[in-house]
Amino acid sequence: MLDEEHVGRFAPFKVSAYTAFFISNLVVFLIALSVCTSILLFITAITVPALFTRLSMLLDPVPFLIVLVFILLLAVVIAARWYTSEFFRTFIYELRGDYFFSRKGVITPSYTLIPYNNIQDIHVEQSIYDRIFGLWAVKIYSATFSRRGSDIIFGLSKKTAERLKTETLERMRGVKQVVD
Amino acid sequence: MSTETLIERYPLEKRKILKKTVQSVFGIIAGFAVLFFFFLNVSFNLFLVFPVIVLILILSVVSYIYQWYYYRNYFYDLVEGKLVVKKGVISTKQTTVPLGKTQDVYLDQDIFDRLFRLWDLHISSASQSSGFEAHIDGVSEANGRAMYNLLLGETVSREEKAEIKEIYYPSNKGIVQMMIGAIFMYIVLFMFSFTLPPIIQIPALILAFIGLFVWVHLEFKSFRYELRDDGVFIKRGFISPKESLVLYRNIQDVEESQALIEIILGIKTLSVKTMTSLSAQDSKLSFLLPDAAEKLREEILIESRKISKVLEKKVAGEKVIARDVQAEVEAPPPYKNHFIKSMIYTGFINYGVIAFVIALVSFFLGVFHSVNFFGGLFLSVGIFPLLFIISAINAVIVYMTYSYSVLRDYVAIKVGLFNIRRKQINYNKIQDLVLNITFPQSFAKLASLKLETGSKEMVQGQRGKSSERITSVSRLVESIPELEFMDAVNLRNKVVELMGVSLKGIGMDSLVSRFPLEKVKPFKKTLWWIIYLTPVALVLCIAANQTGISVLGIIVLLIIYLLAIAGKYVYEVYYYRRYFYDLNDDVLVIGKGVFGSREIIIPFSKIQDIFIDQDILDRALNLRDLYVSTVTGRSILNAHIDGVNPEKAEEIALMIIDRMHDR
After folding, report:
1. Where are the domains of chain A?
2. What is the pLDDT of residue B7?
3. What is the pLDDT of residues B211-226, one digit of tens each?
4. Which numeric CATH code is attached to A92-174?
5. Cβ separation of A144 and B631 shorter than 8 Å?
6. Which of residues 167-206 of B touch A (CB under 8 A)?
7. What is the pTM of this model?
8. Sheet containing strand A99-104, strands side by side
9. ipTM beyond 0.95?
10. Chain A contacts in chain B segment 114-143 (CB below 8 A)
């Protein structure tokens, strides 16, 4: 219901955002996968060492490992690609009537709603990584103590980021209220 | 209005580049020194010294160029009441703070700033990051002050222009307290001085003594507190001066504290806290005589109420505020706290459970295992009185020192034996109310009431920069514990009324009956429990098997495992049945808990944002969690409704948003 309400995205993400996010996903997935496989191998080696000796008798371990690594790499690339495109397809951020809305996440999406009068400050940022791809991020902060008090919209062009900022500020102006 | 930007009118000083370079060169040299003294075991000669000097020179030049670019890219301006600060060479950061959101303003200097006669201006809003991101550093004193006034002029409306009403100086007794610190420092220096040859040692010690004395004197003289029309102004520090203005309207609570040394000297520290993390460390008014502290406290509280009433009227129009009717002052605590009773119940139940578990484990091992560990039975008997005595002493101390009063305008809570703290909370600053009943309390028919403001607490010895370390945990000084259940409910209703909201309609045709939780929720929770518990059980069984336990023992372990799962399911079903949430036009109420219970009341005006999320099992079973957050740290723990249908979650979110908008 919340995500169906939108008419269209605020502005499309930059094309290079896909590349940037894909690369960072690839790295994360690779690390996660290698950690998982090594833990799995380690546990198997401890609990059922017979399995390994039996396997190495049947197969030549070197080509077997090469094929295994290749398959895993391929899987990671496909997964990262799918995840990236899916992420941007489902990523919504919008300036609605009374509140700022965003939806983020592929498998377990989360929704953030911040009423305009509760927005504290807005940051437009570019990290070194973003700079390589010419991307900008907008952070919208509310006053909450929790980690979720901020919302980060990344993968924007400079123009879009500035527009998002000005339009949010524009909407904040109507409502002047103090937090207490 | 002139068209020139703020940075054109009040430019950064060129010296800033030099200052930053000097600072980094110092860092580089210190780094090399550490490297050579501790890690590289080489003797000095010309071949080594030369490249090191060249390296340092190159690094200095690089850092100079970097700083030059940084200076070039620095930008700040005031656009339609919003402060924009932009900086960064490689990565860029641009911060926009609407001045209406400003919590407090600081002007300060560190040692290098002082050498180069530069000032830093900090603007802090209530968000976590603005404290250290929204600052303008490296302006001259005149420009700094001009901007400070300009920003404040924008922050407060024209009729509340800053004018000094009253000036307070700290009591001379404070110098004694500072001296004690200096003496400790001197002792450390004294220890170190033995590494020096005697000819240097004695003059150095004398010099250090005089130096410390002069330093303490100057530091002490630099303290100055002013009550202005718009806020409390605090000035302190000689080597690195700091001026801060805490606006009345942002003060969450006022806390008086007295550490042991302060009790002996008869002075007090007053801290005025806002929501910013910077205020946790910087807004202390120390070394006040009790009378002065009391006077100052009352005045600050009155001012802060006055301002928020003006604002409230602006926002609410002609809405009559309920608390004006409630005129009677109740200085003595209206309801009695039962610390001892609670201690007895809590002690018996908690330690009883611990002892029981130890006894059970040792019995199990004794019967099924070759270890024959019956000694645990004795251990469990021994541990019980020991823990009980410790908690009894604690309870007696709290019983003797705790007191609270519910006044017409604020709640005051006092606690502590050697470190006395007294906190005053204005009703309009209370973020949420938690009525908490723990498991032992439910037997004793007691309950605790927690009043949460959003002020941040400094964790010992941490600078404000890392927001991670500053918590706003709920402490005794923010709660009224161990009341009779009915008393707690009455008190809660009273506080709610004084806060200016009503509980009318809560419990009738409640939200939970209209938008119930999903039936699969207990199942999902149990599933997580199984996922966590199974590996533990497996490891335990394998370990037990390898240390030579009988087959019967393993069967018993497995039965325990199954019982734990069944128990969890039953628990979750009860949890599900007792889950309660409701809202009226003013507040959101969420209650839960099986053995005890926790009920949180949040006025809609205090809700900051809403967040809906799900974990992987939620996704599979089509459930959502709805979080409501206020500025307090604990609200996120209590204020969530988890396990509702996606559509319902979204509908509830929109209902809350609507009510927030009405405020």
Report:
1. 15-88, 92-174
2. 84
3. 888 988 888 888 888 8
4. 2.30.29.30
5. yes
6. none
7. 0.80
8. A92-95, A99-104, A110-115, B609-613, B624-629, B640-644
9. no
10. 125-130, 133-134
